[in-house]
Amino acid sequence: MRILVLAVGRPERGRFDALFREYAERIRAFGVAFESRFVPGVKAGSRFSDAHVREREASALHEALPARRRVIALSPDGGSLDTKAFTRSLERWSQPLAAFVIGGPLGLDADFRKEADATLALSAMTLPHELARVVLAEQIYRAVTILRGVPYHK
Prior knowledge:
Layout: E1 2-8, H1 15-29, E2 33-39, H2 50-64, E3 70-79, H3 83-93, E4 98-102, H4 110-115, E5 118-120, H5 129-148
Parallel strand pairs: 1-2, 1-4, 3-4, 3-5
């Protein structure tokens, strides 16, 4: 099982990062190849329109994605999955690699979302990308425990 979390922005070394790293280590302890990367964000409200910012960020995301992967775009307008459905999907997506992509403050480019293999909502509400990373990592950990038969998920 191989998983990548790819986000727009700059890594924060605060409370959210510590939680994310904790879940990442728990996931890796099950033998899962789990990686996290960032691509630089484009400053919104500068000389670029919001659409242009999203396009530039999408281009950087495309360049950072490995060739053989399934892209799961995270967006509040994506589909909702309960834990069992997410677990089944994660098992399928992670062959050869599940690449979860988190956009910047303006979200992901519409064309990027359309090209993704799936679009997933962690919440109907917008979350800061650092918090979204933690929520995603916890849900991945929960799914892995289910797949491995460990009682964490109960």
